[in-house]
Design a protein that fits this description.
Elements lengths: L15 E6 L5 E4 L8 H29 L5 H27 L20
Antiparallel strand pairs: 1-2
């Protein structure tokens, strides 16, 4: 499933976006226990770690391919496909982790600290 930046998880969400999807391409969510150490949470953690390792390899391969002046269109296309898939996974992981952040405090518009001026 491609990452959808128009529908990110909001901080404080009780649901965890999982790194896999349903058979028909819809996102999967988990309502984890308070300790987040259940079987599916651990499986998702392992899968996310593997996806990040794969993204690192895809990035290194893309750098190598781009430095190769003799790389043909097929190699460039395959490298781009692999790198795009890795980026999609990384964005999905970031979205999932953003949803698990604590909800920010409700500050009014004037509560934000601005730049200070010294005289």
């Amino acid at each position: 499933m491609p990452y959808d930046p128009d529908n990110p998880q909001q901080p404080g969400s009780r649901l965890r976006l999982l790194p896999w999807e349903t058979w028909d391409g819809r996102p999967c969510y988990l309502h984890p226990a308070d300790n987040s150490q259940g079987y599916l949470s651990r499986k998702a953690d392992r899968m996310e770690a593997q996806q990040m390792r794969n993204a690192s390899v895809a990035y290194t391969d893309a750098e190598t391919t781009l430095r190769n002046e003799s790389a043909g269109p097929l190699l460039l296309r395959l490298t781009l496909i692999r790198t795009t898939a890795a980026l999609n996974n990384a964005l999905r992981i970031a979205d999932s982790r953003a949803g698990r952040l604590p909800e920010p405090p409700d500050n009014g518009p004037n509560d934000c600290p601005g730049p200070t001026t010294s005289r």
